[in-house]
Amino acid sequence: MIVFAFRVWPVFSDVHGTLSFSYRLDRSLEPPYIVVDLMDEGEISMNRREAIQGLGALACSIAVQSAASVDSRTEQPAAAQSAAEPLPSVVAGVRLVDSKIARIATELSRSVSPPYLFNHAARTFLLGSLVGRALGQKFDEELLYLACILHDLGLTERFEGDLPFEIQGAEAAKHFLEEHAYARERSTIVWDGIAMHASRIGQFKQPEIALVGEGAGADVLGPDFSQVKKSDVDEVLKAFPRLKFKDAFVETCAEVVRKHPRSASQTFMRDIRERYVPEFHPPNFCDRIAQAPFSE
């Protein structure tokens, strides 16, 4: 079943006469909702009945185009069962944060992410915490958890876009935290942790920011076993299996770049290096993932 929800909202989308609207399929709800947003700016050259009749026709058109997609997305019993299972409270000596905002953030991440990507987000927090402890760092566990569990929102269908995925995800997390009245100074730290996790800049920031990149890097490319015990890593992997992460992650990133080429960020210094220092050949990130010390 598909449910249609209509609401007024400022949008920039397709315009028909003076009535502007956009629509999106929200698969995070049960049953799935097709949300049609109307632009409440200026005069609408329809009365209420005409507008509703027109939107009814639009809804039928959207339903025909979207039904197959909804059906294919909902036929995932294994993924649904996994999402319904409660998270372990402690893994490798690290307590998973269980505050109200952390629980809501977890459900958001679970609802929009494929299981392999959600597990990566959870492992990022656990490994980042283990690295922080090994370095003797003190950090706010809730801030680190929020940044880690939401750090790849920009790779999901719901939140992907033309900005670099890490900034796309940081913006999505910021809006989510604003909706739940989270303190602005704290949400700013979460934003930085997500936006900087794929950059060396994050390494020079406070632990709640730096450890997002440390945890993600340890999970993607392999941990530093001088900092993290192998037995702890094994426990993390048992709690949150990789689910063929290497191939799935690269395929997801490639699909995002196909749809949003501008999201593949590149600094001007890299352009200059490629033109003026052609003898330098850095290792390809895809190769580094393939060589990570994890059996898939």
Structural descriptors:
6 strands; 2 domains; four-stranded mixed beta sheet; alpha+beta; Hypothetical protein af1432; 54% helix; 296 residues; two-stranded antiparallel sheet
Here the CATH topology of the largest domain equals: Hypothetical protein af1432
CATH architecture of the largest domain: Orthogonal Bundle
Which structural class do you get from the secondary structure elements? alpha+beta
Low-pLDDT segments, ≥5 res:
1-23, 33-81
Q: Mind explaining what this structure looks like?
A:
This protein is of the alpha+beta class and 296 residues long. The chain folds into 2 domains: 3-74, no CATH class; 77-290, Hypothetical protein af1432, CATH 1.10.3210. It has helices spanning 48-74, 77-84, 100-112, 115-134, 141-149, 165-179, 184-195, 207-221, 230-239, 245-259, 268-276, 285-290; strands at residues 3-8, 14-16, 19-26, 33-38, 90-91, 94-95. The strands form 2 sheets. A 4-stranded mixed β-sheet has the order 1-4-3-2, with helices on one face. A two-stranded antiparallel sheet has the order 5-6. Helix 5 (141-149) crosses helix 8 (207-221). It is globular. The relative contact order is 0.10.
